[in-house]
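Record Ig-like domain-containing protein, 361 aa.
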Amino acid sequence: IFNAFTEVTSVIYFSSASRVNSLTRSLSITSAESAFEKAQGERVTLPCTFVLSEEDVGTLDIEWVLIPADIQKKEETIILYSGDRIYNHYYPALSGRLQFTSSDPKSGDGSVDILNLKSADTGTYQCKVKKAPGVESQKIQLNVLVKPASTKCSIEGSQEIGKDIILKCASQEGTPLLYYDWRRVVTGTQGLPATSVLNKNTGELLLKNASKDYSGTYNCVASNRVGTDECSVELNVTPPINTAGVIAGAILGTLLGLALLAFLVFCCCKKHREKKYEKEVHHEIREDVLPPKSRSSTARSYIGSNRSSLGSMSPSNMEGYSKTPYSQVPSEDFERASGQNQTIASSKSDIAHKIGDITVV
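=>
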């Protein structure tokens, strides 16, 4: 009885296992690649090929989702094939850059292409294939790197014999880790000087105790896992500059400049004093000189004074005054014009009549 029970149990177990295996293998994803590393601007194909069986009788759905790095966030659908239709409006960041590789995904190829890759496209993508009762999925890691770009070379330190010189190289763009390599471009060789020390992580090349032989063109290559970029710089090692002569020339130039400045200030001050003196002299002359008297007022004042003198005369001294030459008027106050002579003559006649009247009295 025990043996019979054991045989029946074995038959049931193997029958159940066989059914489970048949269901599990009814739909399978055959693509094996699970990680891709691409450069920005390139194109990538995320594979998702599958095989169906006769037992898969439901509607075929092929769904691609983006799994966020933060596990607390929900995954986002980016493209879907269902009921012989394609829906690709779910994820705006990939709008116009995401498409199914095959024009007929139900044929067994649910792969997708992402065009013009960006660094933001980095992430984990998952392909889900459903056709009841079968369900399969596969995750793919995509890493988009930026090539080195805008690499610049420079020289730090004095390019003199015996000095330590540092050649620097740095890329403005590029996904870490970036590595830098220097080489000297010389006819027949590309080796660096024996005293040079290279730091591939920082891009600095130290040239100790530089000599004239160190002169030449140096080339730097920046690289990461997806690309390279380079730049070059010209090094010209020269003898030390005569610092004493430079200092003396600088001092002499400074003194000459100060002298010229002092001369200009002196000229300006002198010119200002001359203008000020001219104004003061002109002002004093105008205050000291009285305005000239008019000729008519001078004549009237002279005649008036003679009349006052005549009014105070007595008969005893009239004889002397009668002989006074009244016709002599100061020549500087009168012009000998005919009109003025007539005026003077009439004045003399009036005086004579007055003298006559005084005599009669």
